[in-house]
Write a structure and sequence with these properties.
The protein has about 475 residues and is α/β, with parallel strands linked by helices. It has two domains: about 160 residues, Conserved hypothetical protein from pyrococcus furiosus pfu- 392566-001, ParB domain, CATH 3.90.1530; about 240 residues, Vaccinia Virus protein VP39 (Rossmann fold, 3-Layer(aba) Sandwich), CATH 3.40.50.150. About 45% of the residues lie in helices and about 15% in strands. The protein is built from 16 helices and 13 strands. Strands 5, 6, 7, 8, 9, 10, 11, 12 and 13 form a nine-stranded mixed β-sheet that branches. It has a four-stranded mixed β-sheet with strand order 1-4-2-3. β2 and β3 form a beta hairpin. α8 packs parallel to α10. The longest helix has 30 residues.
């Protein structure tokens, strides 16, 4: 029969999206008419199936529409019919999850809910999953995702269920890590210790003050071994700006050899480290952080074409194997370094060389267990602090450090910067709701950095109030 369009009642339905092909559907109805009638209840013309067709007919200006009548349908039967209707036209994952949950709830009302931990004839997740033809785990995940989307609407914006589930799992992990870190931090916060600043040799300070596996993230910006102390004073800002006291290759390499094993010791399993380094030292640091195996492989390739090198390469390989058998640490380093792009060129002998406008950062893991809190590219564009604001020639921007901190940690977790310089990492960590430890060897820079941290955070507190 045909009924007036304005008499059809639309109540709460799972389908919200009309789909990208809606205009094509409307055009088809305009040209060929309504091939399949919509389904309504006989009692009050409540729509059961055919939402998109009804909407298309309304937009075409139809006054009446052909319907198929259903009599005495229960709420459960209405939902099942809606689900059946949309098998041929794919629902979004959240629409399908909502419909499954509603069917499950209606079955519980009809049959009585099962009591957890007791044998009964009540209706449970397993029963609904069997009726719907899905696994119990799938139904349980759908219900969890729906509940999570009520408090975190961003979950519902993911295009696929797989993406939403991955994001939800990550949020759960972050919440657990944050709560654990919060409990750990409560004692320190009560004593007013959101951060610890040390003046001294980083290796010695870490050995004397930090237990095994207590740090959640390391940001390591060591001297680069490129004599920046000489270049900066000759070409860069002078006066109050500090640079490295010693940026020779010998000092930089010695510091790395002594400090990196200690950093590994204090890091928790499955945590991250960001290591700033000159691009000319990327291969060296990767070899040091891993196990020198790639270096040996590179030399082996050369030896294939130079037979006289095969014997000494063999001895080198044996030496590396012996060394690694005693080694108790090994980082996993991403093959491609991260790139920080600045607003302008940096210090160099610019009469003869191009001015570098980017820095490389090695992303290192102590195990694979922890992922990143957000999807991001490996190129980061942040302006350096202005020369007026900088205490150190190589000071990193706070917003770049905050980005790394938020990607790799949860609130209240502990960030370590063993070459703190101007203590920008400490400021970034505190502003991000993380605890931090900063270590700086230079006494003058430490004093100025300490004043800077206190002043900066005091200003933030004043701005908030």
């Amino acid at each position: 029969m045909k009924v007036p369009v304005d008499k059809i009642v639309i109540k709460d339905r799972a389908r919200v999206e009309i789909g990208d092909d809606f205009e094509a559907l409307k055009q088809s109805i305009k040209q060929r008419g309504l091939i399949n009638p919509i389904c309504v209840t006989k009692e009050d013309f409540e729509l059961v199936a055919g939402f998109r067709r009804l909407k298309a007919c309304k937009e075409l200006g139809w006054k009446k529409i052909e319907v198929k009548l259903f009599e005495n349908l229960s709420s459960l039967e209405k939902k099942v019919l809606e689900l059946e209707e949309n098998i041929h036209k794919e629902l979004t994952w959240i629409e399908r999850a909502k419909l499954r949950k509603e069917i499950h709830e209606l079955y519980k009302e009809l049959k009585g809910a099962a009591v957890k931990g007791h044998e009964s004839d009540g209706w449970g997740l397993k029963d609904s999953a069997e009726v719907l033809g899905i696994s119990t785990a799938t139904l349980s995940q759908d219900i969890s995702l729906l509940e999570a989307s009520e408090t975190l609407p961003e979950i519902s914006k993911y295009k696929s269920r797989k993406q939403a589930l991955k994001a939800y799992t990550k949020l759960q992990e972050t919440a657990i890590l944050s709560e654990l870190a919060k409990r750990q931090a409560e004692g320190e916060k009560s004593a007013g210790k959101l951060y610890h600043l040390y003046c001294g040799d980083a290796v010695k300070v870490i050995k004397e003050n930090l237990d095994d596996e207590v740090v959640d993230l390391v940001i390591f910006d060591p001297p680069w071994g490129v004599d920046i102390d000489i270049i900066a004073s000759a070409r860069g800002p002078s006066g109050t700006k500090a640079s490295y006291r010693d940026d020779s290759e010998t000092y930089a390499v010695e510091l790395a050899f002594n400090l990196i094993p200690e950093l590994y010791r204090v890091m928790k399993p499955d945590t991250h480290m960001y290591l700033f380094c000159g691009i000319q030292y990327v291969s060296f640091y990767k070899a040091l952080l891993e196990d020198f195996a790639k270096v040996v492989k590179d030399v082996e390739r050369v030896a294939q074409y130079h037979k006289h090198l095969q014997e000494p390469v063999g001895r080198l390989l044996d030496t590396c194997k012996q060394m690694n058998s005693k080694r108790r640490w090994k980082f996993i380093v991403d093959e491609l370094p991260l790139i920080w792009v600045k607003e302008g060129g940096g210090y160099t002998d610019f009469d003869t060389k191009f001015m570098p406008r980017y820095e490389t950062i090695l992303f290192c893991r102590k195990g694979y267990g922890r992922g990143l809190s957000e999807a991001t590219s490996n190129v980061f564009e942040f302006n350096r602090p202005s020369t007026v604001e900088r205490l150190h020639t190589q000071e990193k921007p706070i917003d770049l450090l905050q980005k790394f901190i938020k990607i790799s940690t949860a609130p209240n977790e502990l960030v370590l910067d063993p070459c703190a310089g101007s203590f920008a990492t400490v400021v970034a960590a505190t502003l991000s709701g993380r605890r931090s430890i900063g270590i700086e060897k230079d006494k003058e820079l430490y004093t100025r950095g300490l004043d800077r941290v206190k002043g900066f955070l005091a200003k933030e507190k004043e701005d908030e109030s």
